[in-house]
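Per your request, structure below.
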């Protein structure tokens, strides 16, 4: 597992040339699951200068307030997950889909991943998200991220209480004095709140949601805890024959 600092290397001048929206919804938190037909939107012509400005602003909604990068900083494809650590479907994705993406794409340098907080379930969601950023002070964001999902036991059941978050810090080998100080100072609450605001500005209503940014600057949105095959097909669409 290679972890890099939170710079995902996307130029401000990048333009989203094609937007592909995948709406096979198998499950999300905070909204009722449903099945819809895929919708593909392709601009008929190059965007105007004002259109480019809007697209650049949308890119910033995706790349601001993120976690560190998981995988190679030079990977050509970037996958952005908006999630809530208490979310049932986020937990399902973490257990059922993410391991294969990690093995076949992230560990092989083909895809890099970042996580953005969409804390919509309760205060423990906010606290857990903040704790993950405190863990990053000691270079262990992704270890703590994994510990949160490994210890998941329902929504608003108390598993992500202050005592629980401290126990997870011990599990991943954090300096608990520094961790407690970071938590008490709410040092990263602006990052958590900023990511939540980004998600709302993008019109997101449930978790998890994914945005996959391709080398050609196209963006694919995947809604819900989709099976591995959905992501595999998207990633393969960019591979040369």
């Amino acid at each position: 597992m290679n972890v890099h600092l939170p710079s995902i290397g996307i130029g401000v001048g990048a333009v989203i040339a094609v937007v592909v929206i995948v709406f096979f919804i198998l499950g999300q938190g905070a909204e009722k699951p449903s099945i819809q037909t895929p919708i593909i939107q392709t601009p008929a012509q190059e965007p105007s200068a004002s259109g480019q400005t809007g697209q650049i602003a949308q890119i910033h909604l995706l790349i601001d307030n993120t976690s560190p990068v998981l995988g190679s900083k030079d990977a050509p494809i970037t996958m952005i997950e908006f999630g809530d650590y208490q979310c049932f479907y986020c937990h399902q994705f973490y257990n059922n889909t993410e391991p294969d993406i990690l093995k076949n794409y992230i560990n092989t340098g083909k895809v890099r991943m970042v996580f953005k907080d969409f804390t919509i379930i309760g205060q423990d969601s906010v606290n857990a998200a903040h704790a993950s950023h405190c863990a990053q002070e000691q270079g262990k964001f992704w270890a703590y991220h994994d510990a949160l999902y490994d210890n998941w036991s329902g929504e608003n059941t108390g598993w992500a209480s202050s005592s629980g978050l401290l126990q997870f810090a011990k599990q991943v080998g954090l300096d608990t004095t520094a961790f407690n100080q970071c938590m008490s100072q709410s040092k990263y609450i602006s990052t958590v709140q900023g990511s939540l605001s980004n998600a709302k500005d993008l019109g997101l209503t449930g978790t998890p949601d994914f945005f996959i940014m391709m080398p050609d600057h196209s963006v694919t949105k995947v809604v819900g805890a989709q099976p591995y095959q959905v992501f595999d097909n998207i990633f393969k669409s960019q591979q040369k024959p």
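The two ends are 28 Å apart (CA to CA).

Regards,
D.
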